[in-house]
Amino acid sequence: MKVLIVGSGGREHVIAWKVAQSHKVNKIYCAPGNAGMEEYAECVNIGVLEFDKLVAFAKEKEIDLTIVGPDDPLVAGIVDSFEAAGLRVFGPRKNAAILEGSKAFSKDLMKKYNIPTAAYEKFDNPDDAIAYLEKVEFPIVVKADGLALGKGVLICNSLEEAKEGVKSIMLDKQFGDSGNTIVIEEFMIGREVSVLSFVDGKTIKNMTSAQDHKRAKDGDQGLNTGGMGTFSPSPFYTKEVEEFCNQYVYQATVDAMLAEGREFKGIIFFGLMLTEKGPKVLEYNARFGDPEAQVVLPRMKNDIVEVFEACIDGNLNQIDLQFEDNAAVCVVLASDGYPLQYEKGLGISGFENFKGKDGFYAFHAGTKKTDTGIVTNGGRVLGVTAKGANLKEARANAYKAAEWIDFSNKYYRSDIGKAIDEA
């Protein structure tokens, strides 16, 4: 098979790495890809939203399967474009990707089908939103309705902070049209857990659990980011939690989408909050999490291409999804200043330290190949991932490996997976 992977981040790198292990695949292209993917794939300079060019390329190269990594093209309808051209593609259609594309839609869906989530109200008028805020208890959560690179969620501790949040999203258009509507919801207390799942429209198969760290600084301080590191599995995701979610969340979501005429094929990412009153859904994503994929996929035993094809063909029920009985931790190496201002184009060294070391990986996110070598090209530069027999060992290995890489404004959190010590 010839496979095309759409995207250029750490998520797409780990997908390419996993696809390269498939016995069914002999050629991989990535559009646009990054410096790390070139080890397994041929990178093509086409942007993720250039649907016509991507379709033309897939036809020209006789691509057998296209895998879409990021949220933007999915929400914009890339799968519909590929299917209209008679091409096989993995990911939800536009009318299903709305599960991530609109927080107002997903909250309304959960309310309608009794899927447990935080109490909320939605607003398309800033004055109405502010009037509502004057009646609520704090802290409160203010969310941009649309896509915002994982940064459109504000936890506000006071009325002033919340008013400022509404102003920045709705009036200053910090996230563009994604902030035309906002959702204001109750602040939930508990442990966060991420569960990624494969879906074929009717059947859902869950992957192993993970936990992300969204804030830029140690101790969950600083600004929201796309994710500063992850661990898998989560010791807080117990058998009881899993059984509850199987009954009230996972299949219920797939069934709800089907009932709404929005058949979902692809990945559903469930962001869960384990509250005193039981698990509740924080958010849905319509694709692999980044950096959750960097700890989940290295532990997956299956040929991922077979699973992708089962989702497309509607026979996921025939797949026995299996994961290694171990753990993995990913520490994101970022450019100092992320998620605001940071320098690009700085030389990166140390990749040779990963050669021949089983269970240690450097998944590229914001990197670029130049005549002088690989340089930084984004806020999140690399996801250094390591496995271990258990979470503590995996964490120690990941931090050891984080020291193998060097670039001049390297920054990373020192407490990824610290919650493991408390479990």
From TrEMBL:
<keyword id="KW-0479">Metal-binding</keyword>
<keyword id="KW-0464">Manganese</keyword>
<dbReference type="GO" id="GO:0046872">
    <property type="term" value="F:metal ion binding"/>
</dbReference>
<dbReference type="InterPro" id="IPR020559">
    <property type="entry name" value="PRibGlycinamide_synth_CS"/>
</dbReference>
<dbReference type="GO" id="GO:0006189">
    <property type="term" value="P:'de novo' IMP biosynthetic process"/>
</dbReference>
<dbReference type="InterPro" id="IPR020560">
    <property type="entry name" value="PRibGlycinamide_synth_C-dom"/>
</dbReference>
<dbReference type="InterPro" id="IPR020561">
    <property type="entry name" value="PRibGlycinamid_synth_ATP-grasp"/>
</dbReference>
<dbReference type="InterPro" id="IPR016185">
    <property type="entry name" value="PreATP-grasp_dom_sf"/>
</dbReference>
<keyword id="KW-0067">ATP-binding</keyword>
<dbReference type="GO" id="GO:0005524">
    <property type="term" value="F:ATP binding"/>
</dbReference>
<feature type="domain" description="ATP-grasp">
    <location>
        <begin position="107"/>
        <end position="313"/>
    </location>
</feature>
<dbReference type="InterPro" id="IPR020562">
    <property type="entry name" value="PRibGlycinamide_synth_N"/>
</dbReference>
<keyword id="KW-0436">Ligase</keyword>
<dbReference type="Pfam" id="PF02844">
    <property type="entry name" value="GARS_N"/>
</dbReference>
<dbReference type="Pfam" id="PF01071">
    <property type="entry name" value="GARS_A"/>
</dbReference>
<keyword id="KW-0547">Nucleotide-binding</keyword>
<dbReference type="GO" id="GO:0004637">
    <property type="term" value="F:phosphoribosylamine-glycine ligase activity"/>
</dbReference>
<comment type="pathway">
    <text>Purine metabolism; IMP biosynthesis via de novo pathway; N(1)-(5-phospho-D-ribosyl)glycinamide from 5-phospho-alpha-D-ribose 1-diphosphate: step 2/2.</text>
</comment>
<dbReference type="InterPro" id="IPR011054">
    <property type="entry name" value="Rudment_hybrid_motif"/>
</dbReference>
<dbReference type="GO" id="GO:0009113">
    <property type="term" value="P:purine nucleobase biosynthetic process"/>
</dbReference>
<dbReference type="InterPro" id="IPR011761">
    <property type="entry name" value="ATP-grasp"/>
</dbReference>
<dbReference type="InterPro" id="IPR037123">
    <property type="entry name" value="PRibGlycinamide_synth_C_sf"/>
</dbReference>
<protein>
    <recommendedName>
        <fullName>Phosphoribosylamine--glycine ligase</fullName>
        <ecNumber>6.3.4.13</ecNumber>
    </recommendedName>
</protein>
<keyword id="KW-0658">Purine biosynthesis</keyword>
<dbReference type="InterPro" id="IPR000115">
    <property type="entry name" value="PRibGlycinamide_synth"/>
</dbReference>
<dbReference type="Pfam" id="PF02843">
    <property type="entry name" value="GARS_C"/>
</dbReference>
<dbReference type="InterPro" id="IPR013815">
    <property type="entry name" value="ATP_grasp_subdomain_1"/>
</dbReference>
<comment type="similarity">
    <text>Belongs to the GARS family.</text>
</comment>
